[in-house]
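Researcher: Please predict.
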Amino acid sequence: MAPTLAQRHLPRPARDWAEIQERMLVPLYEAVYERFEVGRHSHVLGLGCGSGLALVMAAARGATVTGTDTDEARLELARQRLLPEPQWGARHWTARVLPGGPDGGPDGAALREGPPPTLVTAFDALPEAAVLARVAQAAGRGVPVVLAGWGPAERCAAAPALRVAQRLAQRPAEPERAAGRCWRPGGRDDLEDLARRAGLRPDGSGRVACPFGYADLDSAVRGLVSTGLYDAAVRATDEEQVAKELAEALRPHVRPDGTVWMQNLFRYVVAMT
């Protein structure tokens, strides 16, 4: 995997997401897969699959996987991981990678070409209710959909660093410059409300600790910026300003050895189609 990813010339945020940040959510992926006993009889559909780590983990359990995302750079990394070139060895799973994702949504006809999913996940970016409704319709009845998001701000040590993005995004005189995805603390019923708007029935929830650990301050800044939550702040100011203020917000979490460590809580909701 590593040689393939390293050889491609892709935007730095996509590479930083794949190499630094994406692994922070591994406890969330594992908790969900354990809950639903994902294995060789499973077909996992990942909405907003990013660079594909969650799907690689499902495939390693024997599952068939399908991933979609609107970020073409991340999607290219997912293709490299899930559909490797022959010289890196034969893959031992069945996988598809499709354009689409939380903003645009996967094509319903393309989804119906493969086996019906037994589990739908939205781990990183939540889809719009209308998109989620279309995916649920294509999936069929009785399929669990897992929606995940940040827990309460008081349980997330990264919250002050994430608020930097909110504050800087509010600076421009032209509001349209700051448009885009932005962090906000998880509300008590946000995920359930999204599920209901999409015509799904909430059927349980869970909380998972996802510590964020980085080798150094620079890696922490790069990892967090790669989430996309700082894009509006960068447009409103510039990359240097965002990096400077984010580094200051992270300093309380720098350990004596230079590593950065933050305890965070993520929440997920299970909703049935």
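Model: The chain is about 40% helix and 20% strand.
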